[in-house]
Amino acid sequence: FYFLSNDELLEILAQTRNPQAVQPHLRKCFDAISQLEFGLLTPGEGKTAEKIQYTNDILAMVSPEGEK
């Protein structure tokens, strides 16, 4: 967390129940991780108007080059 500003660190800590809040800060923390892929709460069958809900399970780490 050395490369994060105090405001960014407080934002992460304030949203401890939402692991996806870390997504914008991953590049500053880790060189080889650009985003995390989370599991879906309920797999949708087709597109619906409902918002997609994710679990707290991390399925993959994605590099800036797109490798998983």
Automatic annotation (TrEMBL):
Domain Dynein heavy chain linker: 1-68
Record-linked Gene3D superfamilies: Dynein heavy chain, N-terminal domain 2 (3.20.180.20)
Pfam families cross-referenced by the UniProt entry: DHC_N2 (PF08393)
Protein name (database record): Dynein heavy chain linker domain-containing protein
